[in-house]
Amino acid sequence: MQTHQQGKAEVGKLHTTIFSIIVVLIMLFGAAITLATIVPAKAYTGGYPYASMACVWSPYATTGTGNWCKKVNTSGQIISDYDWGTIHNNNSSSSEQSPYGYDYRNCTDYVAWKVASLGVPPAHYKGLGNAKDWPTNAPGKGLTVNTIPAIGAAAVKTTGTFGHVAFINAYNSSTGVMTVQEYNHYQDGNYGTRSGTLSGLGFSKVVHFEKYKTSGVLNGIAAVSASDVWAVGFYIDGGYNTLIEHWNGSSWKVVPSPNLGVQHVDVSLSSVAAVSASNVWAVGSYLDVSNNTNTYKTLSEHWNGSSWKMVPSP
């Protein structure tokens, strides 16, 4: 079984989902529209789909503080820990290993899920081993390893029993300061973010996945008619950016959309709803890293028939 030390939880994006639902309901009231599948906004936990995976040991809890998911003997000594899985009292890989190839709620699994969500093929992120072994095993999977942070890469701590790995979602090359998203940093199986330099955060290597990512990710779609369809999401190009595309009945075209400054990262539009050809709404969220706040906030944009404009939201 693999274990890894990772991130502290924060409630983050829960209000974004609520906001998305409210906006969609308001727009739907009294409007006759055709609405395709809408993907909910990423919630708290950094969007990781297994954030509520239960501990395999009794009482099979899903939350706790400190190193809470563990099995101890009658003397109070830890026999096994960081054991989140699908089968009670079973800490084998059949219980604890996620579809991404690493143990649930561990740092490695979160980063694997994160790069997979950007389109990186499994051949490049699966089988890298414990966190501290990633720099050694990465070249064999076509990955570059160095000490230069980059958005979309993984920062690696190579010391300790298992090491630690985190996803880099913001980087200022002028100051050397980056922001990372991570799991289980505090041994609690939870999500957290931190900002600082590579060495200041305890990392020594960077594993680069960026060249294998897709150009963009679409999360939601809505249709006014067969020749008037909108899709929204995000793409990474030196930073996180909103992505909006339009179908005119014969082809898709990227439509310019408002984007936030460098102090706002992890920007993503997650849902879209169309009331009419001149009244379309897109909602999502972003991580505000200004003044080291590292707080998720709502993002709302409106199409008035000729252009997309950002609209202030709570």
Task: Explain briefly what this protein structure is.
Helix content is 12%, strand content 33%. It has 314 residues and is mainly beta. It has a domain of 127 residues.
- The number of helical segments is 5
Whole-angstrom Rg: 21 Å
Mean residue pLDDT: 84
Distance between the termini: 43 Å
Percent in strands: 25-35%
- Determine the fraction of residues in helical runs and give it as a percent range: 10-25%
Major β-sheet annotation: 6 strands, antiparallel
Structural class: mainly beta
Order of helices and strands: HEEHHHHEEEEEEEEEEEEEE
Uncertain ranges: 1-43
Main β-sheet, spatial strand arrangement: 3-8-4-5-6-7
The general outline is globular
> Count the strands?
16
Compile the SSE list and pairings:
Elements: H1 14-28, E1 70-72, E2 78-81, H2 93-96, H3 107-117, H4 122-125, H5 134-137, E3 144-146, E4 154-157, E5 164-172, E6 177-183, E7 191-196, E8 205-208, E9 217-225, E10 228-236, E11 240-247, E12 252-254, E13 264-276, E14 279-288, E15 295-303, E16 308-310
Antiparallel strand pairs: 1-2, 3-8, 4-5, 4-8, 5-6, 6-7, 9-10, 10-11, 11-12, 13-14, 14-15, 15-16
Question: Can you give a write-up of this model?
Answer:
By secondary structure, the protein is mostly beta strands. The protein has a domain at 14-44 and 215-310. Helices cover 12% and strands 33% of the residues. The chain contains 5 helices and 16 strands. It has helices spanning 14-28, 93-96, 107-117, 122-125, 134-137; strands at 70-72, 78-81, 144-146, 154-157, 164-172, 177-183, 191-196, 205-208, 217-225, 228-236, 240-247, 252-254, 264-276, 279-288, 295-303, 308-310. A 6-stranded antiparallel β-sheet has the order 3-8-4-5-6-7. Strands 9-10-11-12 form a 4-stranded antiparallel β-sheet, with no helix packed on it. A hairpin with a 4-residue loop joins strand 15 (295-303) and strand 16. The longest helix has 15 residues, at 14-28. It is globular. The model is unreliable at 1-43 (pLDDT under 50).
